[in-house]
Amino acid sequence: MVLVPFSRLACAAVRKPWILWLALLCSMPPCAAWAGRAYVSDEDGNAITVIDTDSMGVVATVDVGKRPRGLKLAPDGSRLYIAVSGLPKCGPTVPDAECAKRKHDLAADGIAVIDTQSLKLVKLLKAGTDPEQFDVSRDGRRLFISNEDAASVSVLEVASGALRATIPVGPEPEGARVAPDGQRVLVTSEASGTITVIDSRALKVERTVQVGKRPRDAAFSADGGVAFISCELDPSIYRLPLATNDPPTQLLQLRPEAKPMGVVMDRDGKRLFVSTGRGGTVAVIALDAAKVLAEVPVGARPWGIALARNGRRLYTANGPSNDVTVVDTTTFTVIKKIPVGNSPWGIVLAD
C-alpha cells in the first residue's frame, strides 16, 4: 500500500472530494461480509464449498473435518461455524444393528470454526457427541447444538469454548432454531415426533409438544409468535404458537412423494419455502390460504435451503446430485445449477 502525505491528500481532497473517500476505502482491510457468498457443507467430502453468489461459481474449498452438516454464520459474518461428526454415515438401507457396529471417532466431533476473511480453519470447539444442527444466539455468544446420538442439546460459550449446559430433549434431535427475539430455542426430535421448547436464558425446557412424524426443521413468523415445523413422514407442515401454550396444529399436508426437510420464511412473512427431500422440489406455501402455490424441481433430495437477504433468490443443497440450485422466487424458475463437492447437506448465505 502506498502512503500519501496527509497534507497532499488534504489539498487534493479539497479540489476532488472523491479522492479522500477512495483513500479511506483503500486503507481499510477487506471485509468478508461485503462479498456475496454461499457456504455449502459437503458431508461426504469433509469440506465446505464457497460460492460467489454474483458469478454463481465456486471460488474455494476448505477442509473442515469429518461429515460436515449443519452450519451457521456469526452475527457479524466474521466466523463460520460447522458441525462435524466422527459418527459414520448410515444410509436408509443400512440396518440399525449394522450402523451401531461402526466405529465412532469421538475426537472428530465438534464445531469447526472458519475465519471467513482468510477462509482458514481456526479451531474445533468440543460440543458433545455427534453434533448435527445448531443455531447461534442473537448476541453471537452461544451455540445451541443438537447431539443426535445423545438425545440432548449442548449449550456452548463461543469465546471460551466452555460447555455451559447439557439439556435433555427427545431422541434423535436434529433441527435447532433460535426464535427471533432470542428467548426460546426450538429443537426437533425425529424419533419421538416432538418439539422441545427451551428457555434460552434459564437453559431449561419450557415444554415438549407432539407434532407429526419425523420433524426436521423450523422457521418463525416475523414477530416470533409462531413456528412452522416440517415433518418428513406425514408429509406435513405444522403450526406451533409460541406466545401461548396452545398445541400445534397441522397447517397442510403435501403430496405423498414429498418429504419436507428444510424450511425458510419469505421476507414479508407470507410465504414458506420447503425443501422436499426425496420429492426433489421446493414447495412454495401461501400461509394465509394454507396451500401450495408451486413446486419447483431443483435436484436429487434437496435438504439445506437458504433465502437471499433481498428475497429474490433461493438456494438448495442437493445431496445425491452434488449441486446447488438457484431459484428465482418471483417466477419460480431455476436460474442455475452449480456443481459442488460430495453430497452437499447444508447451506448458509453471507449477502
Notable traits:
351 residues, 28 strands, mainly beta, disordered N terminus, Methylamine Dehydrogenase, Chain H
Question: Can you describe what's shown?
Answer:
It is a single chain. The chain contains three helices and 28 strands. α1 packs across α2 (18-27). The protein has a single domain, classed as Methylamine Dehydrogenase, Chain H, CATH 2.130.10.10. The strands form seven sheets. It has a four-stranded antiparallel sheet, with no helix packed on it. The chain has a four-stranded antiparallel sheet with strand order 4-5-6-7, with no helix packed on it. It is mainly beta and 351 residues long. β8 (131-136) and β9 (142-147) form a beta hairpin. The radius of gyration is 21 Å and the shape is globular. The chain has helices at residues 6-15, 18-27, 96-101; strands at 37-42, 47-52, 57-63, 71-73, 79-84, 110-115, 120-125, 131-136, 142-147, 152-157, 163-168, 173-178, 184-189, 194-199, 204-210, 215-220, 226-231, 236-241, 249-253, 263-265, 271-275, 281-286, 291-297, 302-307, 313-318, 323-328, 333-339, 344-350. Mean pLDDT is 90; it is low at 1-14 and 18-34.
